[in-house]
Fold this sequence. Notes:
Blueprint: H1 3-31, H2 36-44, H3 46-74, H4 78-107
Helix pairs in contact: 1-3, 3-4
Amino acid sequence: MNAKQHWLxxxxxxxxxxxxxxxxxxxxxxxxxxxxxNFIDWLSAPTNTYFAIALLPxxxxxxxxxxQVILEDYIYIEKTRNMYILLINAACFLLTFFGLxxxxxxxxx
Length: 109
């Protein structure tokens, strides 16, 4: 990915995160009054399921892109920098995968 594509992806993901973070903030305000079964019912509503499924990949993409920029700015040894970028991308991928797996398991159980 070249610098222009990287910049565009970071801006697009930040714009996509605005409604998703508002939704997540509303969830946090309701979460204290929910028990486990209420939360499962709430997450099983189609709109909430879609928002939860959309939040994870967009959030972890934005995290990976932002951390990559930081590493590129401050780590001058290319081999070390690339190793850290690979580790961050792998961690973000795994966290996204397991998060989506958890949501799908909860909703379709």
